[in-house]
Each structure stands twice: as structure tokens, then as C-alpha cells.
């Protein structure tokens, strides 16, 4: 299956051919890429770059599924019994109910399915390519053969491609080959008999870049890739139900057995008391149908999907449906600093050279701003050294800045690199001109191990210039000399210590610090991290987001512990944490990653210290993983933010992995449960609130539905056992099941939530949907409705002298109105009686209007009234209905005020 490489072109064994042979055959210039017309022609020829996936559920399939249920089976049995005993009209009425039930199920499931399909479309994979001579970012599905892919650490490869350039490149090919260790990549041709796993001059669709950077020519897309050859394995994966849906299914199964047992009791008790056996069988079946909450999973799916859409509107894309419910139980957020708590729009504010300090004015992408020299004014040579430092920064860069009429039209890439380009513009230094003057011959991408990146350039005098940028401590430790006005001199250990102290001083003001260095060598193959010449420090401001303080305050009020875990300097992290209200001056301490003990062997005192710490600085991805485990062992539900390829294990480990949409790598996004399109901490808090709202709405829906169901069961069961006339007939039960159950219940699932949800502590993630208090509340509400239905029937017959059909009408209307009004019992305890989440839910009022209209139609339209054995109740009857319908809600609200029920 993997014996040969797939390609859209007539290229035999492309791994064995030289780059010149391939580009000549395909006729492509790797520096310019395709133009618009070529792209259009290739898209028409080869189609989208996508694998075949399981087709979406068709409307016909959804419709057929509605007839594959226990409710339909029971209804069919009831209709058959009616036809057998000659009740032809009733039999056809039940058949009509079958189709009405199927229609309701069809439209609710259709909404859920289409909502989920729409949400999947929101999460698109992107790729960087060269077209029309410039770097662009496009939807990966639009990639065509002959495109030039550009990628770096953390990117997912989206097509099979032959490598053109590499820099310290390693790829994780486990999705294709099963090999867990990253593979070194190269450009040179390989022997023709090289097996797939060893073709290290080709990158494959579905794999990811674990280190370095590169450029490659696309050979195959979609199903023509190696991954396309094995895509059938992907299609075999079945869609999993969320834990919430599984619990609802389990609850439904238990209720089925209870309902069937009670139905059997009703049949036996009614038959023994002299009632007609066919009537009792149909009544029992109707009761079983009414009490089986088959709609629970569908409504839960709709609520979850609607919640995902609400989150998407707030820039939070959910990758997994189950994450929606987990969010509601989150009580720890392990957040990064850059871009999440800060603006992620960096500005160079100061440069520190040996003997000089320069202040840059202007913010963000402003290309103009005053440049001010400190320390004895414009010291001799400092201008030249400042320009040299910025030039080195502009060489050691991969971001792009499009400028027109002295304004930034487009900024693409790392915010820190963009800030260096803006600083260059303020000095009238053009990044493009500098890179043309010093052509790049080698690039060593940023590495977590060295904390530096290097580019190597040709100079006019046959030497090579090494441009180095990275972590200040790492760069200084790699430097043996320091640049002065016209020459370099040896850097002593004391001077190194002095510069390290300056780093602390700059970081204490909340600035991010990078260091720049250079090296002049006779070859391009020298060790890039030895004997460097130190040029200076660059301080960059990334201001905290104004909205973060409010979001953190809301988190604290919701019982959520917010912890900053950053790779940045400790003092910088502390300054930002104080400015956004994460910590105050009394607990302004932090722990460094290098000082963390083995978290697997902690004593209780150290464990408590780590659990109480709010800031962890200079932490690496492995330490983040350990911190997640530490809090999970403390029975916390942990949400963690990440953006790099090395964050992927921690994102998977967290209960909610959150990737950054703007600056996050594709690997991080695929490993995460949620992607923040705006990289903003407040979006996480909003998503948690939505998660709580969804779970709370589903609880209300379940409690409401089961309370109504239990009241119907109790009414018929008690009336049968007490040998009373049946207060409600089979078709009436089915009608109520379609009317009072469906519309208000759906409305509860669509609510916006209670305002006080974020002032409560997070719920236990293992807490059942129906707690002991929920079951007790269900029993109380059901008993209240049952009591007033039976009292009203007795009063109607014995006091008002109503006939049985009139009394049945009264009980039917009381049961319907009491259940309808019962929706107002679903307000949050402690909320205002008249203004709350239920009364403010427009869907509840729409459901009430629809239900009342249908009830009135069932009484005053002769055909329906005759079919359901109902008749207009008259003035006295309506008074009894009003009294019996409102009594349960009034008493329920009184009981609720004492917090005896939910």
C-alpha cells in the first residue's frame, strides 16, 4: 500500500531525482511559485486538496431513523390494538401521532446534524505558500500541485511535497509510518529503492514539523497523497457520544424499565377493577410512551451544538462536542502570557548597547516615531552600532511587512519580528534591501534547546556573516566578545554578569527582552553558537489587554484558579500579572521552571506551595505537563493554553486544551479541544460560562420533562388503584406528550442562562445530571400536579355533578396547564420571581403561545374534540381548570423560596 510515492505528475520516483530535474520537468520557479491563472487551471484539473470523508447524513436517512425507536413500536402496537377492537378512528389518530412524533424528531435531529456540520466547517486548516512571488496564507484545501509550501516548527504538512530548502528540519511522521521519533530531513536525492519511511527528502500530508523550517514543491494533493492511500482507515472511526449524552441514554434506559413496570401495574389494576382490557392496554402503552424521554439525547445535542455556535460567535472554536460540558466544570486555567493576557502587538521601546541606551517612541505598527539617545546624548559610534544591531535583527527574520505610502498594509508573522521591522523603518532601514545586500545561504531555525535562531549570509569580502537572535541569557553565554564603536573586545565574566543584571532591570518594567549577536567566519559551516560578538539588548513592550482584568475578576468570582505558566522572564511575568489583577503586591512571587522539583516525588509542603503558586516563569512544555498532572491529582479540571509544537502533549493531557488561533501552530490546534481565534483570555472565561449555561439548561430540561412525565404516570396509576374514572384517556396522553412536553422543553434548552452562574463555584465533573435533590424536586413537583388533578376530578364529579367526559376534559386541561406553567418553576433558586432567565427567554413565551393555541383547538374544533373525547368545559369548568392549573405553580414557588426544591 505504501510501496510507491503518489504524484499528480509523470515523475517516477521523485525522491531519486535532483531538484533541477524536477523543476525543469514540472516547469516551476520555486522563488515565484504559481500565478493566478495557473492556480485556477490546476484547481479545475485536480480539485480540492482533501481526503474523502464519511458523507454527511442525508435528509432521507434522518427521516428513516425516526421510525427506528421504541416509541414508534409502542405506538404501532397501540394502533394495531385499536384496529383489532374496531376503534378505526382512534387507530388512524394514533397513526397520525406516529407521523407527528416522527416529524418532531426529524426536524430536531436535522437541526442538530446540520448545526454540527456547520461547526465542523469553521475549523479550517491553513498553509503558507509562495504564489505570484510573495508569501501567502491560504486554506489548505486550495493547495494545488506545483505550489511552493513554506513551513516551520509546529506546522502540519498538508500535501506530499519534495523538499527544496531545509534548516535544521525534523518531521514527526508517526501518522504515516508509525515511527514515534522525529525524522531528520534533507534536500539531496536518494537511491531509487529507498523505502517510504526513509524518504527524508519528501514531506508527507498529515505529518508535522517538530523542529526547524523548510520549503517544498507540492507533488500530490488529496487522495493522491500517501495518506490518501490509507484514508479508509480514518473513515472507519465511529463518532463517539459525549459523556453527557451517554448519561442521558443511561437515564432513559432506566426510565424505560420503570415505565413499563408501572404500565403493567396499571393494566392489571384496571382490569381487576372492572375496566375494559383493551382500554387499559392502550392507556398503559400511552403512559409508557409519555414517560420514555427519547428526546433527551437529541435535545442535548441541539443544546451542545447551539452552545458551540454561541462560542464560535465569541471566537472560541470547539473541536470536540464533549468539551462543551467539560468547560462548565473547569476550575483551573493554566494560561500563557503573550497574546492571551497581553495584546500580542509588540513594539520596540528601547535598545541597550554597550555604553548607550536608545528609546523608541510610537506604538504598534506606527512607522514614525522619535528616537531618543540616553547616556551622554548621541554618543560617537552609537548610531552605527544601533543600525548594525537592527540590521542583524532584520536578517534573522522570516516575517513580512507590506508598506504602501508610509503605512503598514499587511503584517504577517511573529509579532516580535514585525516589531523589529517597524523599528528598522523608523531608522530608514529596508528589510528587503538588507536581505538583498546580504543573501541568505543557511538558516538554523529557533530551537527550544538552544533558545536561539541563526541565519548565515554572504558578504562582499568572501566571508560569511552569522546573524543570531534569541533569549538574552542564551545569547550572552554564547558570546566571547562585545561590540564597541569601531571594534570588538573580549567580554569578561564580570561583564556578562553585568548584562544579566540589565536584563533583570528591563524585565522588571514588564518588557520582553531579546539579545542580538553576530559572527564573521570564513566558512558557512562553523559552530553558530560559539565565539559570538554581543551587540546589545532589545526591549519590547507587549501591553496587557484592557479587558483581561475584568475577565480575571469574573474567573475568581466563579471559583476558577487562574495560573500563569510562561516561558518568559519571571519579572516580566510578575509585572504583567500584577497589571491584570492576577496577583497583588502581597503575593507577588513566582517560581522558575529550573527550580521546580520532581513533581512526582513531592512532599506535602512542596505540593501545597506549588498548588498555591500563581506564576511559573521560564517553564518548558514538559514542566507544563507536570503542572497539569499536579492539579489533576488534586481533583481539578484543568484548561491549559498553548501555541507551540512542544505544547501538544500538554494540550492533550489537559481536560481542556486551548490553542491560540492567531499565533498557534497547526500541531497545537489539532491537539487542542478549543481554538481561540482572538488569542484572548476573556474568550476562555466566556466559553466556560457558556459551558455552565448549557449543562444548566439541560438539567432544567430533564427536570421539567421528568416532572411532567411522572405526574401523568401518577395520575393514571393512582386513579386506577383507587378505582376512580380514568382522568385522562390514551389519545389525550399522546396529545399532551406531543404538546406540553416538546415545545417548553426545547425552549428551556435554548435559554441564555442564569446571570448568577459565574458567581457559583464549578460543579464536580462527575456529578450526575439528576442529583438527589433533583430527584426529590421531581417527586414534589409531580406530586403537586397529580394531587390537584385528582382533587379537581373528584370535585367536578361529586360537587359540580359533571359527567365523566366533562370531568376528563377538566383533568386533561389541568394536567396540560399545570405542566405548562411548571416551566416557570425552572428558574434559578434565589432569582427574582418575575424577572429571571425563564421569563426573559423568548422561546419559552413562544412555546406557551403555541401550546395554548393547540389546547384551545383541541377543545373548540369539533373534529379534534370528538377524536380526543373532549368538550368545552363552560364557565365553572374553566374556573376549576384555572384553580387546579395555578395551584401547583403557586405552591411550587413557595416551596422553592425555602430552597426545599430546585
Keywords:
902 residues, Calcium-transporting ATPase, transmembrane domain, Rossmann fold, 10-stranded mixed sheet, 8-stranded mixed sheet, 27 strands
Descriptive report:
There is one protein chain. The protein is an alpha+beta fold. The protein folds into four domains: 1-239, Distorted Sandwich (Calcium-transporting ATPase, cytoplasmic transduction domain A); 248-310 and 689-897, Calcium-transporting ATPase, transmembrane domain, CATH 1.20.1110; 316-342 and 545-679, HAD superfamily/HAD-like (Rossmann fold); 347-540, 3-Layer(aba) Sandwich (Calcium-transporting ATPase, cytoplasmic domain N), CATH 3.40.1110.10. Helices cover 47% and strands 17% of the residues. The chain contains 30 helices and 27 strands. A hairpin with a 2-residue loop joins strand 1 and strand 2 (134-139). Helix 11 (296-313) packs antiparallel against helix 24, helix 26 packs antiparallel against helix 27 (804-821) and helix 28 (842-860) packs across helix 29 (862-868). The longest helix has 41 residues, at 681-721. The protein is elongated, with a radius of gyration of 35 Å. It starts with 18 loop residues before the first helix and ends in a 5-residue tail after the last helix.
Please outline the helices and strands.
Elements: H1 19-26, H2 36-46, H3 59-65, H4 70-84, H5 88-122, E1 126-131, E2 134-139, E3 148-152, E4 160-172, H6 174-177, E5 183-184, E6 202-203, E7 208-220, H7 226-229, H8 231-235, H9 243-272, H10 277-291, H11 296-313, E8 316-318, H12 322-327, E9 332-335, E10 347-353, E11 356-360, E12 371-373, H13 382-395, E13 400-404, E14 407-412, H14 415-426, H15 431-437, E15 440-447, E16 452-458, E17 464-470, H16 472-477, E18 479-483, E19 488-490, H17 493-507, E20 512-521, E21 532-541, H18 548-557, E22 561-565, H19 570-579, E23 591-592, H20 604-612, E24 615-617, H21 621-633, E25 638-642, H22 648-653, E26 656-660, H23 666-671, E27 674-676, H24 681-721, H25 730-749, H26 772-798, H27 804-821, H28 842-860, H29 862-868, H30 874-897
Parallel strand pairs: 9-22, 9-25, 18-21, 22-24, 23-24, 25-26, 26-27
Antiparallel strand pairs: 1-2, 1-3, 3-7, 4-5, 4-6, 4-7, 8-27, 10-11, 10-21, 11-12, 13-14, 15-16, 16-17, 17-20, 18-19, 20-21
Helix pairs in contact: 3-5, 4-5, 4-10, 5-11, 5-25, 9-10, 9-11, 9-24, 10-24, 10-25, 11-24, 13-14, 24-25, 24-26, 25-27, 25-28, 26-27, 26-30, 27-28, 27-30, 28-29
Amino acid at each position: 500500500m505504501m510501496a510507491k510515492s503518489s504524484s499528480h505528475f509523470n515523475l517516477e520516483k521523485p525522491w531519486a531525482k535532483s531538484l533541477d530535474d524536477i523543476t525543469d520537468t514540472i516547469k516551476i520557479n520555486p522563488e515565484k511559485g504559481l500565478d493566478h491563472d495557473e492556480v485556477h487551471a490546476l484547481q479545475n484539473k485536480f480539485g480540492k486538496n482533501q481526503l474523502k470523508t464519511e458523507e454527511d447524513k442525508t435528509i432521507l436517512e434522518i427521516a428513516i431513523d425516526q421510525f427506528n425507536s421504541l416509541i414508534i413500536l409502542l405506538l404501532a402496537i397501540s394502533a394495531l390494538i385499536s384496529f383489532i377492537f374496531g376503534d378505526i378512528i382512534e387507530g388512524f389518530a394514533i397513526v397520525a401521532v406516529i407521523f407527528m412524533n416522527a416529524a418532531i424528531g426529524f426536524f430536531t435531529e436535522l437541526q442538530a446534524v446540520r448545526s454540527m456540520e456547520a461547526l465542523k466547517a469553521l475549523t479550517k486548516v491553513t498553509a503558507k505558500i509562495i504564489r505570484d512571488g510573495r508569501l501567502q496564507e491560504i486554506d489548505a484545501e486550495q493547495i494545488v500541485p506545483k505550489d511552493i509550501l513554506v513551513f516551520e516548527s509546529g506546522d502540519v504538512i498538508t500535501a506530499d511535497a519534495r523538499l527544496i530548502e531545509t534548516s535544521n528540519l525534523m518531521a514527526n511522521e508517526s501518522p504515516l509510518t508509525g515511527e514515534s521519533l522525529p525524522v531528520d530531513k534533507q534536500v539531496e536525492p536518494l537511491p531509487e529503492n529507498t523505502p517510504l519511511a526513509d524518504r527524508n527528502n519528501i514531506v508527507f500530508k498529515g505529518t508535522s514539523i517538530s523542529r526547524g523550517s523548510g520549503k517544498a514543491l507540492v507533488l500530490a494533493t488529496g487522495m493522491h497523497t500517501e495518506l490518501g492511500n490509507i484514508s479508509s482507515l480514518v473513515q472507519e472511526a465511529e463518532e463517539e457520544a459525549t459523556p453527557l449524552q451517554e448519561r442521558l441514554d443511561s437515564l432513559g434506559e432506566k426510565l424505560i424499565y420503570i415505565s413499563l413496570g408501572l404500565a403493567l401495574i396499571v393494566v392489571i389494576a384496571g382490569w381487576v377493577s372492572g375496566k375494559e382490557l383493551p382500554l387499559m392496554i392502550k392507556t398503559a402503552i400511552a403512559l409508557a410512551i409519555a414517560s420514555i424521554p427519547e428526546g433527551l439525547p437529541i435535545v442535548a445535542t441541539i443544546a451542545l451544538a447551539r452552545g458551540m455556535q454561541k462560542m464560535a460567535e465569541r471566537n472560541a472554536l470547539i473541536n470536540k462536542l464533549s468539551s462543551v460540558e467539560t468547560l462548565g466544570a473547569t476550575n483551573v486555567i493554566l494560561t500563557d502570557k503573550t497574546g492571551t493576557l497581553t495584546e500580542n502587538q509588540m513594539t520596540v521601546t528601547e535598545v541597550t548597547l554597550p555604553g548607550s541606551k536608545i528609546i523608541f517612541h510610537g506604538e504598534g505598527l506606527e512607522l514614525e516615531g522619535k528616537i531618543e539617545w540616553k547616556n551622554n546624548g548621541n554618543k560617537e559610534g552609537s548610531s552605527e552600532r544601533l543600525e548594525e544591531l537592527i540590521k542583524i535583527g532584520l536578517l534573522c527574520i522570516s516575517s513580512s511587512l507590506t508598506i504602501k505610502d508610509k503605512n503598514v498594509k499587511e503584517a504577517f508573522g511573529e509579532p516580535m519580528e514585525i516589531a523589529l521591522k517597524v523599528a528598522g523603518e523608523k531608522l530608514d532601514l529596508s528589510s528587503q534591501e538588507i536581505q538583498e545586500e546580504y543573501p541568505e545561504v543557511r538558516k538554523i531555525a529557533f530551537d527550544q534547546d538552544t533558545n536561539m535562531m541563526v541565519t548565515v549570509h554572504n558578504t562582499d569580502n568572501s566571508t560569511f556573516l552569522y546573524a543570531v537572535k534569541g533569549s538574552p541569557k542564551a545569547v550572552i553565554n554564547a558570546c566571547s566578545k562585545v561590540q564597541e564603536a569601531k571594534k570588538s573586545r573580549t567580554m569578561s565574566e564580570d561583564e556578562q554578569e553585568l548584562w544579566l543584571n540589565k536584563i533583570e532591570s528591563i524585565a522588571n518594567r514588564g518588557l520582553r527582552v531579546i539579545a542580538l549577536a553576530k559572527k564573521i567566519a570564513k566558512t558557512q559551516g562553523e559552530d553558530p553558537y560559539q565565539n559570538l560578538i554581543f551587540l546589545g539588548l532589545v526591549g519590547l513592550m507587549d501591553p496587557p489587554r484592557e479587558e483581561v482584568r475584568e475577565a480575571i475578576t469574573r474567573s475568581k468570582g466563579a471559583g476558577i484558579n487562574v495560573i500563569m505558566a510562561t516561558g518568559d522572564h519571571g519579572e516580566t511575568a510578575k509585572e504583567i500579572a500584577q497589571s491584570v489583577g492576577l496577583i497583588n503586591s502581597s503575593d507577588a512571587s513566582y517560581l522558575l521552571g529550573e527550580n521546580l522539583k520532581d513533581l512526582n516525588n513531592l512532599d506535602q509542603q512542596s505540593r501545597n506551595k506549588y498548588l498555591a503558586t500563581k506564576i511559573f516563569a521560564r517553564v518548558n512544555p514538559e514542566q507544563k505537563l507536570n503542572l497539569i498532572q499536579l492539579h489533576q491529582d488534586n481533583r481539578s479540571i484543568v484548561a491549559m493554553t498553548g501555541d507551540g509544537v512542544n505544547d501538544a502533549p500538554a494540550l492533550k493531557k489537559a481536560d481542556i486544551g486551548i490553542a491560540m488561533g492567531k499565533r498557534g501552530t497547526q500541531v497545537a490546534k489539532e491537539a487542542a479541544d478549543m481554538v481561540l481565534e482572538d488569542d484572548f483570555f476573556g474568550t476562555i472565561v466566556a466559553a466556560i460560562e457558556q459551558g455552565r449555561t448549557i449543562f444548566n439548561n439541560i438539567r432544567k430540561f430533564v427536570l421539567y420533562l421528568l416532572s411532567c412525565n411522572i405526574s401523568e404516570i401518577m395520575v393514571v396509576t393512582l386513579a386506577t388503584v383507587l378505582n376512580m374514572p380514568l382522568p385522562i384517556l390514551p389519545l389525550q396522553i399522546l396529545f399532551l406528550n406531543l404538546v406540553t412536553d416538546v415545545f417548553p422543553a426545547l425552549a428551556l434548552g435554548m435559554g441564555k442562562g442564569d446571570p448568577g452562574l459565574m458567581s457559583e463555584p464549578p460543579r464536580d465533573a462527575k456529578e450526575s445530571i439528576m442529583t438527589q435533590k433533583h430527584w426529590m424536586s421531581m417527586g414534589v413537583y409531580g406530586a403537586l400536579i397529580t394531587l390537584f388533578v385528582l382533587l379537581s376530578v373528584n370535585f367536578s364529579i361529586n360537587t359540580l355533578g359533571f359527567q365523566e367526559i366533562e370531568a376528563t376534559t377538566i383533568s386533561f386541561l389541568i394536567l396540560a396547564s399545570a405542566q405548562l406553567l411548571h416551566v416557570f418553576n425552572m428558574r434559578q433558586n434565589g432569582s427574582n420571581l418575575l424577572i429571571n432567565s425563564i421569563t426573559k427567554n423568548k422561546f419559552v413565551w413562544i412555546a406557551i403561545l403555541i401550546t395554548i393555541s393547540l389546547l384551545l383547538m383541541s377543545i373548540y374544533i369539533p373534529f379534534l374534540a370528538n377524536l380526543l373525547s373532549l368538550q368545552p368545559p363552560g364557565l365553572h369548568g374553566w374556573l376549576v381548570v384555572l384553580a387546579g392549573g395555578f395551584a401547583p405553580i403557586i405552591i411550587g414557588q413557595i416551596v422553592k423560596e425555602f430552597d426545599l426544591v430546585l
